[in-house]
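Q: what does this look like with manganese (II) ion bound?
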Amino acid sequence: MIVVMQPDAGESAIAAVEAKILAEGLGVHVSRGTERTLIGAIGDERKLSPAMFETLQGVERALHIVKPYKLVAREWHKASTVVKVRGIPIGGDAVQMIAGPCSVETAPQMRAAAAAVAAGGARLMRGGAFKPRTSPYAFQGAGLEGLALLKEAAGRHGLPIVTELMDVRMLDTFLREGVDVIQIGTRNMQNFDLLKEVGKVDVPVILKRGMSATISEWLMAAEYVAAGGNHRIILCERGIRTFETAYRNVLDVTAVPMLKRETHLPVIVDPSHAGGKAWLVSALASAAVAAGADGLLVEIHPNPPEAWCDADQALTPAEFTVLMRKLGAVAEAVGRSMAGVTAPASMQREGLPIV
Ligand code: PEP
Ligand code: MN
């Protein structure tokens, strides 16, 4: 049972609901979000009925949720959630592009990347300062210095920053530095202690799919974040492991409509880590937008062959601009728009190549 409190419900109303659940011998979990408080009853729900709560002060609604994930389920929240990042909506009509290099390298690299991100029309910039590398001997990221470079370069164009958090001990630093979106990578999707901590803060979280995680496991990971009170979660499909070895991962396009049905949270797609090759990015990104993705996370680099990390999959600034226009046309075809792309229909007239 989940009890949805009215946005203005006071502490005494919340306490009364808690007391009623406890009196029935069930456990209680309170998730205090910035917009509203959600109260879950834990245990044998058959003892409870929505009518027991709906007459209480401050209660908007109460309902049984059949799925194991509750707060993130569309069952109770029919409308799609829009997560705002400095006013930029993720999950609305417009498809958002988040672009930038795999990893932060140098000041000139970041400045050129930020200029390309902005010129292409993307409204948010990505860049890894702390990198989860398969080899301990590979470049591990520029760390705090990298975070500063990302902030500086993105700031020149007013772009909010998206960067990966791997270690819970860095969370305070991320908050202090004003990271706009915390990315939880595929390798940490089930790092439950990390999820619990980002669940306590009021910063949007991109939760990437574990490379071998089922939809249900992924949504349960999101539930960890929501249970802590952080309801600003964006799910990111980034390819899964299968028997196929011809490309880095298999982009699970099916996940997009499936998630849109199961959860009210926005869903974005990372075609770069899915395909692992720059030439695959355009096709995979188009498929994602056609399938209903609310946004994309794409790696670009001012000079891909020189990239310190994931060089094979980075787009050049020119390729990125062409991609944005193409995605504008794809978005339009499915009744949406591509944020930052003004005239997709003019693409054909201008004779721009479709990659
Ligand atoms: C990344 O986005 O830089 C990254 C490491 O992605 P993933 O966690 O999906 O591998
Ligand atoms: Mn990468």
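Residues 317-333 form the longest helix (17 residues). The two ends are 49 Å apart (CA to CA).
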